[in-house]
Please model this.
Amino acid sequence: MIFGAQFPQYNIDWPDIVKLVQTVETGRWQSMWLSDHFLPPGVGGHGTALEGWTLLAGLAMKTERLRLGILATGNTYRNPAHLAKIATTLNHMSGGRVELGLGAAWYEQEHTTYGWGFPSLRERSDRLEEATQLIRMLFHKDDEEVVNFSGNYYQLKGAPMSPNSSQDGPIPILIGGNGEKRTLRTVARYADASNLDFWRPGGVDVYKQKQEVIDRHCEDCGRDQAEVRRTVCIPTRIFDTEEAFKKSEGGKPWYNWGTINMIQDYVGEYIEAGADEFMMCGIGNNPHVWERLDAEVLSVF
Model:
């Protein structure tokens, strides 16, 4: 089992997030993730927000072994060929540690605030599929090859990609999203990994259902199901006693909240369900909590 840590980048300054990341770097964690919002989500846009890819580049220089990614880059914010260039440059800088997380984008307020168009869900899904196909072509091409692409939303004419994405192979593409009809179909067609975000309704049963959907889409498009790595990201919080957990407010039944033993059991259920990587989020700016999860949960697995 691989464990990942998604860090807060809202209402936090550079020295504090560096301390968090370096705490995780010295532990058993194998990947670190940021998010991609220009306003703090969920609080009406109030507060500070550090830009994800810029911050990821800085943190790459403060780490040596952790895999690096964004859960998930909003496709509407950047031209996909530009995003591929950003990812390959950072992959070159970090010694091949980048994974490109990509999603359709959902936060309407930041689109409105900064004057970006916010298409319908159907169009955003269409754009995500087209962008993922385009980026995969750029990542998998031979060194001297150029890419031509003519889509409804994106076009390339004789596009190179230098530096290329390959160090230990092409940069993996991870698609974040839970939608069964479109997002998980795009996963099956073009992605190397899926990520289910369980800030929204989830749980082990929902996780299993989504994997069955991915498998069906893989079968439909003639792809080996084993080529798609399965990951999940779940809000996590430690309580010292079951009584304190039962009195807590704000959590959801599918969150990874509870005592250490409860969290261990919950992680174990996802391992049994076939998860390849378990990512923890919602923990906040507290290095001690990350250390405790490392020592008391990750060590068990």
Remarks:
- Residues 2-233 form a domain with the TIM Barrel fold (CATH 3.20.20.30).
- The CA atoms of residues 230 and 276 lie 5 Å apart.
- The first strand starts at residue 2 and ends at 6.
